[in-house]
Amino acid sequence: MSREIRSMKDPSKRLEILEAGCGPRWYLDIGDGGHVLTGIDLDPEALRVRRDETKDLHEAVVGDLRTADFGHRTFDVIFSSFVLEHVPGAQQVLENFNRWVKPGGLIIIMIPDPYSAHGFTARMTPHWIHLLYYRLIRGQKNAGKPGYGPYPVTYDKAVSREGIRAFCAENGLVLAAEYGMLADTLKNRPVEAYMKTLQVLSLGRLSSDHSDIIFIIRKPALPARADLQVSAALPACCAGSSRSTRTSSSGQ
Is 231 helix (H, G, I), strand (E, B) or coil? Predict the structure, then answer.
Protein backbone atom coordinates (compact mmCIF):
# COMPACT_ATOMS: atom_id res chain seq x y z
CA MET A 1 0.00 0.00 0.00
CA SER A 2 2.80 2.39 0.83
CA ARG A 3 4.40 1.67 -2.54
CA GLU A 4 1.21 2.48 -4.44
CA ILE A 5 0.87 5.82 -2.67
CA ARG A 6 4.54 6.73 -3.10
CA SER A 7 4.25 6.01 -6.83
CA MET A 8 1.64 8.77 -7.10
CA LYS A 9 3.86 11.47 -5.65
CA ASP A 10 4.69 14.35 -7.97
CA PRO A 11 7.50 16.75 -7.00
CA SER A 12 5.55 19.61 -8.57
CA LYS A 13 2.55 19.32 -6.23
CA ARG A 14 1.45 17.99 -2.88
CA LEU A 15 -0.42 14.70 -2.69
CA GLU A 16 -3.82 15.18 -1.01
CA ILE A 17 -4.63 12.21 1.27
CA LEU A 18 -7.82 11.66 3.26
CA GLU A 19 -7.70 9.19 6.13
CA ALA A 20 -11.34 8.21 6.51
CA GLY A 21 -11.64 7.15 10.14
CA CYS A 22 -8.53 7.86 12.21
CA GLY A 23 -6.66 5.33 14.28
CA PRO A 24 -4.02 6.27 16.83
CA ARG A 25 -1.39 6.77 14.15
CA TRP A 26 -0.64 6.61 10.42
CA TYR A 27 0.76 3.16 9.71
CA LEU A 28 2.02 3.66 6.16
CA ASP A 29 5.51 4.76 5.19
CA ILE A 30 5.20 7.13 2.25
CA GLY A 31 8.27 9.26 2.98
CA ASP A 32 8.58 12.71 4.47
CA GLY A 33 6.90 15.73 2.92
CA GLY A 34 5.17 16.06 -0.39
CA HIS A 35 1.72 15.30 0.99
CA VAL A 36 -1.13 16.77 3.01
CA LEU A 37 -2.82 14.33 5.39
CA THR A 38 -6.41 15.14 6.38
CA GLY A 39 -8.13 12.98 8.97
CA ILE A 40 -11.88 12.71 9.53
CA ASP A 41 -13.56 10.85 12.38
CA LEU A 42 -16.89 10.86 14.16
CA ASP A 43 -15.17 10.55 17.55
CA PRO A 44 -13.76 13.96 18.61
CA GLU A 45 -11.64 12.39 21.34
CA ALA A 46 -10.00 10.04 18.85
CA LEU A 47 -9.14 13.04 16.69
CA ARG A 48 -7.77 14.92 19.71
CA VAL A 49 -5.46 12.02 20.55
CA ARG A 50 -4.31 11.83 16.95
CA ARG A 51 -3.82 15.59 16.61
CA ASP A 52 -2.27 16.38 20.00
CA GLU A 53 -0.31 13.22 20.78
CA THR A 54 0.63 11.61 17.47
CA LYS A 55 0.78 14.99 15.70
CA ASP A 56 0.89 13.72 12.12
CA LEU A 57 -2.33 15.22 10.74
CA HIS A 58 -2.23 18.47 8.77
CA GLU A 59 -5.99 18.87 9.23
CA ALA A 60 -8.48 17.17 11.57
CA VAL A 61 -12.19 17.10 10.74
CA VAL A 62 -14.91 15.90 13.11
CA GLY A 63 -17.58 14.39 10.89
CA ASP A 64 -19.69 11.43 9.85
CA LEU A 65 -18.40 9.68 6.72
CA ARG A 66 -22.00 9.20 5.58
CA THR A 67 -22.91 12.89 5.65
CA ALA A 68 -19.63 14.83 5.55
CA ASP A 69 -19.34 17.47 2.82
CA PHE A 70 -15.96 18.61 1.48
CA GLY A 71 -17.55 20.85 -1.14
CA HIS A 72 -15.49 20.84 -4.32
CA ARG A 73 -12.41 19.52 -2.58
CA THR A 74 -11.15 16.14 -3.79
CA PHE A 75 -8.27 13.85 -2.81
CA ASP A 76 -5.59 11.87 -4.62
CA VAL A 77 -5.80 9.04 -2.08
CA ILE A 78 -8.54 7.94 0.32
CA PHE A 79 -7.36 5.49 2.97
CA SER A 80 -9.82 3.68 5.25
CA SER A 81 -8.43 1.10 7.68
CA PHE A 82 -10.83 -1.08 9.70
CA VAL A 83 -13.61 1.50 9.75
CA LEU A 84 -16.41 0.38 7.42
CA GLU A 85 -17.32 -2.68 9.49
CA HIS A 86 -18.40 -0.29 12.27
CA VAL A 87 -20.65 1.89 10.10
CA PRO A 88 -24.37 1.24 9.54
CA GLY A 89 -25.10 2.35 5.97
CA ALA A 90 -21.56 1.72 4.72
CA GLN A 91 -22.77 1.83 1.09
CA GLN A 92 -23.29 5.56 1.52
CA VAL A 93 -19.69 5.93 2.69
CA LEU A 94 -18.43 4.09 -0.38
CA GLU A 95 -20.44 6.40 -2.62
CA ASN A 96 -18.88 9.40 -0.89
CA PHE A 97 -15.40 7.92 -1.42
CA ASN A 98 -16.17 7.77 -5.14
CA ARG A 99 -17.21 11.44 -5.11
CA TRP A 100 -14.24 12.59 -3.05
CA VAL A 101 -11.44 10.83 -4.94
CA LYS A 102 -9.95 12.53 -7.98
CA PRO A 103 -9.97 10.84 -11.41
CA GLY A 104 -6.79 8.78 -11.51
CA GLY A 105 -6.78 8.56 -7.72
CA LEU A 106 -6.74 5.61 -5.31
CA ILE A 107 -9.18 4.31 -2.70
CA ILE A 108 -7.51 1.91 -0.26
CA ILE A 109 -9.83 -0.04 2.03
CA MET A 110 -8.95 -2.52 4.77
CA ILE A 111 -11.68 -4.54 6.48
CA PRO A 112 -11.89 -7.76 8.47
CA ASP A 113 -13.21 -10.52 6.23
CA PRO A 114 -16.68 -11.27 7.66
CA TYR A 115 -16.38 -14.81 6.30
CA SER A 116 -13.05 -15.61 7.87
CA ALA A 117 -12.93 -17.49 11.18
CA HIS A 118 -11.81 -14.27 12.86
CA GLY A 119 -14.52 -12.14 11.21
CA PHE A 120 -17.20 -14.67 12.04
CA THR A 121 -16.17 -14.59 15.69
CA ALA A 122 -16.24 -10.78 15.73
CA ARG A 123 -19.74 -10.74 14.20
CA MET A 124 -21.19 -13.35 16.53
CA THR A 125 -19.81 -12.25 19.91
CA PRO A 126 -21.13 -9.33 22.02
CA HIS A 127 -19.14 -6.13 22.29
CA TRP A 128 -18.18 -6.69 25.93
CA ILE A 129 -16.24 -9.77 24.84
CA HIS A 130 -14.26 -7.61 22.42
CA LEU A 131 -13.46 -5.18 25.23
CA LEU A 132 -12.20 -7.96 27.50
CA TYR A 133 -10.07 -9.37 24.68
CA TYR A 134 -8.44 -6.00 24.00
CA ARG A 135 -7.82 -5.26 27.68
CA LEU A 136 -6.79 -8.66 29.02
CA ILE A 137 -5.26 -10.42 26.01
CA ARG A 138 -3.84 -7.53 24.02
CA GLY A 139 -2.99 -5.44 27.08
CA GLN A 140 -4.69 -2.24 25.87
CA LYS A 141 -5.83 -0.68 29.15
CA ASN A 142 -7.60 2.23 27.41
CA ALA A 143 -9.70 -0.05 25.21
CA GLY A 144 -13.28 1.18 25.06
CA LYS A 145 -12.56 4.54 26.64
CA PRO A 146 -13.39 7.75 24.70
CA GLY A 147 -11.04 8.01 21.74
CA TYR A 148 -10.01 4.34 21.79
CA GLY A 149 -11.35 1.22 20.13
CA PRO A 150 -12.72 -1.32 19.80
CA TYR A 151 -16.02 0.02 18.52
CA PRO A 152 -19.18 -2.05 18.01
CA VAL A 153 -19.27 -3.90 14.68
CA THR A 154 -22.11 -3.82 12.16
CA TYR A 155 -20.89 -5.45 8.93
CA ASP A 156 -23.30 -4.05 6.38
CA LYS A 157 -23.76 -6.09 3.21
CA ALA A 158 -21.39 -3.77 1.33
CA VAL A 159 -18.56 -4.62 3.73
CA SER A 160 -17.44 -7.86 2.11
CA ARG A 161 -15.59 -9.12 -0.95
CA GLU A 162 -18.82 -9.35 -2.92
CA GLY A 163 -20.00 -5.93 -1.74
CA ILE A 164 -16.79 -4.12 -2.68
CA ARG A 165 -16.59 -5.89 -6.04
CA ALA A 166 -20.17 -4.93 -6.83
CA PHE A 167 -19.53 -1.32 -5.80
CA CYS A 168 -16.56 -1.10 -8.18
CA ALA A 169 -18.46 -2.66 -11.07
CA GLU A 170 -21.48 -0.38 -10.63
CA ASN A 171 -19.36 2.79 -10.51
CA GLY A 172 -16.78 2.08 -13.21
CA LEU A 173 -13.94 1.72 -10.71
CA VAL A 174 -10.98 -0.61 -11.25
CA LEU A 175 -10.26 -3.13 -8.50
CA ALA A 176 -6.51 -3.10 -9.02
CA ALA A 177 -5.67 -5.51 -6.18
CA GLU A 178 -7.45 -7.59 -3.57
CA TYR A 179 -5.66 -9.80 -1.11
CA GLY A 180 -6.02 -11.29 2.34
CA MET A 181 -3.68 -11.06 5.29
CA LEU A 182 -3.47 -12.51 8.78
CA ALA A 183 -3.27 -9.93 11.56
CA ASP A 184 -0.08 -10.17 13.63
CA THR A 185 -2.15 -10.26 16.85
CA LEU A 186 -3.65 -13.58 15.71
CA LYS A 187 -0.34 -15.31 15.06
CA ASN A 188 -0.15 -17.46 18.15
CA ARG A 189 -0.85 -21.14 18.64
CA PRO A 190 -4.07 -21.02 20.70
CA VAL A 191 -5.75 -18.54 18.33
CA GLU A 192 -4.54 -20.37 15.22
CA ALA A 193 -5.84 -23.66 16.63
CA TYR A 194 -9.23 -22.06 17.35
CA MET A 195 -9.51 -20.61 13.83
CA LYS A 196 -8.53 -23.91 12.18
CA THR A 197 -11.17 -25.68 14.26
CA LEU A 198 -13.79 -23.21 13.03
CA GLN A 199 -12.68 -23.78 9.45
CA VAL A 200 -13.11 -27.53 9.83
CA LEU A 201 -16.48 -27.24 11.58
CA SER A 202 -17.73 -24.86 8.87
CA LEU A 203 -16.65 -27.32 6.14
CA GLY A 204 -14.14 -24.79 4.86
CA ARG A 205 -16.51 -21.84 4.55
CA LEU A 206 -14.69 -19.88 7.28
CA SER A 207 -11.06 -19.38 6.31
CA SER A 208 -8.29 -19.57 8.90
CA ASP A 209 -5.58 -18.53 6.43
CA HIS A 210 -6.39 -14.84 6.66
CA SER A 211 -8.38 -12.47 8.86
CA ASP A 212 -8.49 -9.25 6.85
CA ILE A 213 -8.88 -8.06 3.25
CA ILE A 214 -7.14 -5.18 1.52
CA PHE A 215 -8.68 -3.57 -1.57
CA ILE A 216 -6.76 -1.17 -3.81
CA ILE A 217 -9.24 0.60 -6.06
CA ARG A 218 -8.37 3.01 -8.85
CA LYS A 219 -10.69 5.63 -10.31
CA PRO A 220 -9.99 5.90 -14.05
CA ALA A 221 -8.44 9.16 -15.19
CA LEU A 222 -10.49 11.45 -17.39
CA PRO A 223 -9.89 10.85 -21.13
CA ALA A 224 -7.73 13.33 -22.98
CA ARG A 225 -9.74 15.92 -24.90
CA ALA A 226 -7.57 16.90 -27.86
CA ASP A 227 -10.37 18.80 -29.61
CA LEU A 228 -10.93 20.98 -26.56
CA GLN A 229 -7.22 21.82 -26.45
CA VAL A 230 -7.30 22.89 -30.12
CA SER A 231 -10.41 24.98 -29.59
CA ALA A 232 -8.87 26.70 -26.59
CA ALA A 233 -5.72 27.58 -28.52
CA LEU A 234 -7.38 28.86 -31.72
CA PRO A 235 -10.21 31.29 -32.50
CA ALA A 236 -13.54 29.57 -33.07
CA CYS A 237 -13.48 30.09 -36.86
CA CYS A 238 -9.97 28.67 -37.19
CA ALA A 239 -10.70 25.74 -34.87
CA GLY A 240 -13.72 24.89 -37.01
CA SER A 241 -11.76 25.08 -40.27
CA SER A 242 -9.02 22.98 -38.72
CA ARG A 243 -11.51 20.23 -37.91
CA SER A 244 -12.98 20.47 -41.44
CA THR A 245 -9.54 20.07 -42.98
CA ARG A 246 -8.83 16.97 -40.90
CA THR A 247 -12.19 15.46 -41.87
CA SER A 248 -11.62 16.19 -45.55
CA SER A 249 -8.13 14.69 -45.44
CA SER A 250 -9.36 11.52 -43.78
CA GLY A 251 -12.02 11.17 -46.51
CA GLN A 252 -9.34 11.24 -49.20
Answer: helix
- At 147, phi and psi to the nearest 5? 95, -5
Beta strand segments in 25-169, E: 35-41, 59-62, 75-81, 101-112
Integer Cα distance of 47 and 45 in angstroms: 5
Alpha helices in the chain (DSSP H): 2-6, 44-49, 90-100, 117-124, 127-132, 161-171, 189-201, 226-233, 236-251
Buried b (16+ CB within 10 A) or exposed e, 194-218: ebeebbeeeeeebbbebbbbbbbbb
- pLDDT tens-digit map of 52-108: 888 888 899 999 999 999 988 999 999 999 999 999 999 999 999 999 999 999 999
Buried b (16+ CB within 10 A) or exposed e, 83-111: bbbbbeebbbbbebbbebbbeebbbbbbb
**41 pairs with which residues across the strands?**
62
Percentage helix, strand, coil, to 5, in the chain?
40, 20, 40
